[in-house]
Design brief:
Length: 72
């Protein structure tokens, strides 16, 4: 797989490689892609949890209690 990066990203990759944290460009890119997918999965889990919370709140009728408080 060939990857084309902007000059800015190429420079940042070179800086990371020079830091000694990675043994190769492939290792750095592989870790970055893995982190991207992990973060996207975490985001999807958060969204799913918020949907479940919203459904529970709706099912319990709490929206109406908050949005339409009683006139007591």
């Amino acid at each position: 797989m060939d990857v084309t990066l902007s000059a800015d990203l190429r420079n940042r990759v070179e800086q990371e490689l020079a830091s000694g944290r990675y043994r190769s460009r492939d290792e750095l890119i592989e870790q970055a892609v893995r982190q991207f997918f992990d973060e996207r999965q975490r985001g999807q889990r958060r969204l799913d949890a918020l949907r479940r919370i919203g459904q529970a709140v709706d099912h319990a009728g709490l929206y109406e209690r908050v949005l339409l408080p009683s006139q007591e």
